[in-house]
Amino acid sequence: MKKLLKSTLAMLSVLVALTSCNNSTTSDSKSGALAGNVAEKVYVAPGEHDEFYAFISGGFSGQLSVYGLPSGRLFKVIPVFSQDAEKAYGYNEETKPMLNTSHGFVPWDDSHHPDISQTAGEIDGRWVFINGNNTPRIAKIDLSTFETTEIIEIPNSAGNHSSSFVTENTEYVVAGTRFSVPIPQRDMPIKDYKGNFKGSLTFISVEPEHGHMDIKFQLIMPGFDYDLSHPGRGKSHGWFFFTTYNTEEASTLMEVNASQNDKDFIAAVNWKKIEEYVNNGGGTMMAANYAHNVYDESTHSATSTMKKEVLTVNPLDVPGAVYFLPTPKSPHGCDVDPTGEYIVGNGKLSANLTVHSFTKMLDAIENEKFAGDAYGIPILNFEDVLAGSVEQPGLGPLHTEFDGKGNAYTTFFISSEVVKWKLGTWEVVDRQPCYYSVGHLMIPGGNSRKPFGKYVVAMNKITKDRYLPTGPEVTQSAQLYDISGEKMQLLLDFPTVGEPHYAAGAPADLIKPRSKKLFNLEDNKHPYAAKSEAETKVVRDGKTVHVYMTTIRSHFSPDNIEGIKVGDKVYFHITNLEQDYDVPHGVSMIGANTSELLIMPGQTETFVWEPKQEGVWPFYCTDFCSALHQEMQGYVRVSAANANTPLRWSLGEDIE
Ligand code: K7E
Ligand code: CUA
Asked: According to its UniProt record, where is this protein mainly located (predicted)?
């Protein structure tokens, strides 16, 4: 055992050494490969639009950023799991409920895997889903407003990593746990992990018209780590595949102890079968506690509901629903090709890349050729399900995408490259270096039956000398390659927000026409909306004051308020009366313990101000909205708590 430990440690240190020597590639070698026509391939002239949208996860920023391809220009950072002072998300009263969880208000998460909704196996540009790893959640972003409109917490999960991938008609978005834990959670010794901890794989149904999410069932699996997942498609539609590591069920010094088994598994889950089982009354309702947060576009407000139970399924109760495919060795990525036939398991510590065949898997199941079982779940024979392997393609394979022309592209973290290989013949046809240490890669539509195989974006973990230095923390980065030819061509580096993990891309034409320009004021059902200046007012209710305020170029109504007292809780409800595209107003109040608001045309937003000091305090518009933006300002007079200054407000005249 000691010896094994030593040799594993030795192997790991070789890997570390390889990583670092690769990262010291000098600047000489890195630009040498660029051909002369590169600039024009990424140049999008002023006023022109990009051909693709790319939604790149923000990793530990908890957000999702929107870029254009091929330019690499950043258009927007969509706040999802983290508070964002730029947009008031998670600060204003309307969106605070979005960040509610069973652990209370959690204003941060670690977001990894965006995935765009699909219809008939093709991306449809309606929504993008993304996972929060840390406090397990899945969010849905509406691609007509580019706003987060729903977040559902995942109970019985921990480190929601094999998530949030969608099935080919968006029947489900899936959330697999990275860490196995006691289910239900309870106080128990960590050393008793093995055999007692469990891993949940959660299937969240998506209502086809509005995308409303609901947990349909949770499969309670053996206590492995469920790393990544992808849906079957085409012939394998109805199945879902999850890579596992730590089939050793170790709970300490994981870098060694979870790397003992020569093979871990890909879990193949026949979700259609389980769906049928639960539709016929199968499964066990378990007490749970999780938040379901929904943003309503007509009230411009979110509500948070705590849910109290979840339907769990024991895989042994549904024979034929779950199988294990042996896969070397601590696989990370789990990727399915556009035809649905090939399942690529990228063993991080394996020399070769393993590709499983869906057809062979079905044959083996049919013939009941099993190599044993794990906690009662049948294990198939490696050789029986193997479609082929790519021999020694690189070091440290992580993720694979497809171009729809029979080619696959795999990232190699340690040898820091993207390798192009052919499905079916398994031969390597090209390789290009990445700067440096690439994680995921993305081809628009790459997780669907119809990829748009023109570009691949590699998302790198380390940049070192690629950009101007910015102190110890330097930017993370993406790289764009042209893959329209036989050989890949590096076109562009561009920095990213947070750490990019996965991304999802779509042709601009799929999303652009659906993009909303403003909110209709008439449809505004916010309970504190003032839809005209005539409706503006200030209402006191004990120590609570509600200000119904409006904005229009270039003033607030009212712009002077008196009669506020120290110790009051003042709610500013601001309605933006504009009905023009791209005319938001902002509002900020001195000393408010929150962010500004940024209010879109037709929208109402609210912040709370608790004045601590007597005086006359200004507020102003934060968004440069007109030539007279700088005049868009007002005052609030704050009197002592026991003063009898009457409550009055005005616009365009003095308060007498
Ligand atoms: Cu970064 Cu998909 Cu979370 Cu691999 S994961 S890199
Ligand atoms: Cu309104 Cu600046």
From this structure: other
